[in-house]
Specification:
It holds the Pfam family CK_II_beta. Tetramer of two alpha and two beta subunits. Tetramer composed of two alpha chains, one beta chain and one beta' chain. This protein has helices at about 10-15, 15-20, 35-40, 55-60, 70-90, 95-105, 155, 165-175, 195-220, 225-235, 245-255, 260-265; strands at about 125, 140, 145-150, 190, 195. It has about 270 residues and is mainly alpha-helical.
Length: about 270
């Protein structure tokens, strides 16, 4: 707000929301429609959560015209940011709010998944708690279904309650076409082309459990969603050296000799 320090109170008020949205660190927020902000039904219960509630609301809705000292203005400004964040969590699960956040998601405003196998999948902001001051905002990847911390320290300070725990799931319910195709690809530790013994044994066990799960799903007539990827994996498997029996033979070879080879080749 330093750039508006010399402006009059009316100028200061009229620019508040534009300033807030365009400020560095607030890129995750979308602009809340004025009609939504002026509807008291949408603000139910927030007067008990925000200090200087009425002054903060006047500032956010561009009708603040009081003469106040710098200390008081700073407190009202802090309350206005908090109020906007709490209203934002409610607004982004409405039809208009979801549409605005969907556009940001498509543009990659919230960042991309750091997991290599996710191939730069776009992320969505989310909270781990709907209560303010409980946790900071996280970023959700719909491909690996994991959450990450924002890269920027500015974004790391945003309260997770300003996005809530349901927003990202509601968005994919409303826009199912945005749900990315899940993948079962995973990194395989190797030494000179051979899978590391301990990891290979663990992965075989995990693959067996996965196959069992798929069989149970197929028995119930449910689509596993992995058929196309399995065909691709089978084609890639045709070019690999040896079959399953030979892989077992390699594993047995590493176990021979008092465990010396097994000790050397570990993850």
């Amino acid at each position: 707000m330093e750039e508006f320090a010399s402006d009059t109170d009316s100028d200061y008020a009229s620019y508040w929301r534009d300033w807030f949205i365009s400020s560095k660190g607030n890129e995750y927020f979308c602009e809340i429609d004025e009609d939504y902000l002026t509807d008291r039904f949408n603000l139910t219960g927030l007067n008990t959560e925000v200090q200087y509630y009425q002054h903060a609301l006047d500032l956010v809705t561009d009708v603040f015209d009081m003469e106040v000292d710098d200390d008081m203005r700073e407190q009202i400004e802090k309350s206005a940011r908090h109020l906007y964040g709490l209203v934002h969590a409610r607004y982004i699960v409405t039809t208009r709010g979801l549409a605005k956040m969907m556009e940001k998601y498509k543009q990659g405003v919230f960042g991309k998944c750091p997991r290599v196998i996710c191939e730069s999948q776009h992320l969505l902001p989310m909270g781990q708690n709907d209560t303010a001051n409980a946790s900071h905002v996280k970023l959700y990847c719909a491909k690996c279904e994991d959450i990450y911390n924002p890269k920027s320290s500015r974004h790391n300070q945003i309260d997770g309650a300003y996005f809530g725990t349901s927003f990202h799931n509601i968005l994919f319910q409303v826009y199912p076409a945005l749900v990315p195709v899940k993948t079962q690809r995973r990194y395989e530790p190797r030494l000179y082309g051979f899978r590391v013994h301990a990891s290979a044994a663990l992965m075989r066990w995990q693959e067996e459990r996965r196959d069992e799960m798929k069989e149970r799903l197929r028995a119930r007539g449910m689509d596993t969603g992995f058929d196309a990827e399995e065909e691709e994996a089978d084609e890639e498997g045709d070019g690999e050296i040896g079959d399953e029996g030979e892989e077992d033979g390699l594993d047995d070879m590493f176990e021979v000799g008092g465990g010396m080879a097994q000790t050397q080749i570990v993850q």
